[in-house]
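#onboarding

Welcome to the new folks! Below is a worked example of what a typical request in this channel looks like: someone posts a single protein sequence, and someone else replies with the predicted structure as tokens. Don't worry about understanding the tokens yet, we'll cover that in week two.

Example request:
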Amino acid sequence: MYEKTFPNKRFGHTLEFLKKHITTSETILDLGVENPFSKIMKQEGFSVSNTKGEDLDVDQSTLKNENYSVTTAFEIFEHLLNPYTVLQNIKSDKLVISIPMRLWFSSAYRSKTDMWDRHYHEFEDWQLDWLLEKTDWKIIDRKKWTNPVKKFGIRPLLRRFTNRYYIVYAEKVLNS
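Example response:
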């Protein structure tokens, strides 16, 4: 089990939540290129494939054409301009999605050197819930946690008790 201490706290919580809802016999499409957490999922016995780096805002062909029982999206939806269309085009029946939450005391993240490493959306929990509802996903479980940093100051103090991450397990609503 991954430790839930700095700097692995996010991975520990995410892995625990994933194992609570998804079995290793299910196939997973993880949105985004291979990353440290998709490697952890594989080490833990999950069958994981990643998207290939295509711009999911304009190209959802992988979502439409591949057959997976679960789709995961760990800290990727904040980078998308069009998460609504992405959610509509997911074919799997199960979804595990996590996001960094919008913090009232910190502006949206924006890398000065990497034009793709920016947060277009930083959601509040109700906004992600509404987005999922509008795209026919039913939330079964959810969890939030803090992400304290080892620095001094007002913002680091606020991070000790302000939830930073939000994770949701949802299932596709079957239209009759």
